Amino acid sequence: MCQLGWGEEGEAWRWRLFAWEEEMVGELMLLLHNVTLQVNKDDRWLWTFETSHAFSVRSVYNFLTVQPPIATSVVVSSLWHMDVLLKVVLFTWRLFWDRLPTKDNLFRRGVIDYNFMECVVGCGSVESSAHLLLHCNCFGSVWHFIYRWLCISAVVPLYVQDHFIQFSYSGGTAKVRQSILQAI
């Protein structure tokens, strides 16, 4: 790879890279530096999530749905080392431990009846932390605008902790991640 492309005679990048993308390309180059291609060996597909090493949609589905969420304690412990407002850290801590007064939590504690668990917007879903902040058509759509504003292409994960990790690491370097979290 040279400057902005895959070699002097190869394909060039179609757009100018951001600084964090250039850093990622450099890291990729370091990873690929020690890779040696074997000319006399045929290429083959290898899917490590099946014992037969054959790809199947079921194995992808199982991989994506069966994996347990990342340990909340690991994610929460990283919160206390960030330079953000204390009220943001406390809200996030309550969010990660599912301690916000959402309707599903109020129902679990016997405060409200089952009939009143619907989302405040009236979308028909049960009001939970993950629903309100990530999946609700009204409130969750804010993330789509933020992603578009930051030029990030991402799928909103199922769990809030996964979203925190995905969003905080989408900025590239630690310095960029820190400034993104401070901006929020």
Short description:
With 184 residues, this protein is mainly α. The chain has helices spanning 19-33, 57-66, 72-79, 86-96, 103-108, 129-135, 141-149, 160-169, 174-183.
Structural features:
9 helices; about 0% strand; about 180 residues
Q: What does this molecule look like?
A:
The protein is mainly alpha-helical and 184 residues long. The relative contact order is 0.09. It is extended, with a radius of gyration of 22 Å. The mean pLDDT is 78. The longest helix is centred in the first third of the chain and has 15 residues, at 19-33. It contains nine helices and no strands. It has two domains: 1-42, no CATH class; 70-183, no CATH class. α3 (72-79) packs antiparallel against α4 (86-96). It has helices at 19-33, 57-66, 72-79, 86-96, 103-108, 129-135, 141-149, 160-169, 174-183.
Layout: helices, strands, pairs:
Blueprint: H1 19-33, H2 57-66, H3 72-79, H4 86-96, H5 103-108, H6 129-135, H7 141-149, H8 160-169, H9 174-183
Helix pairs in contact: 3-4
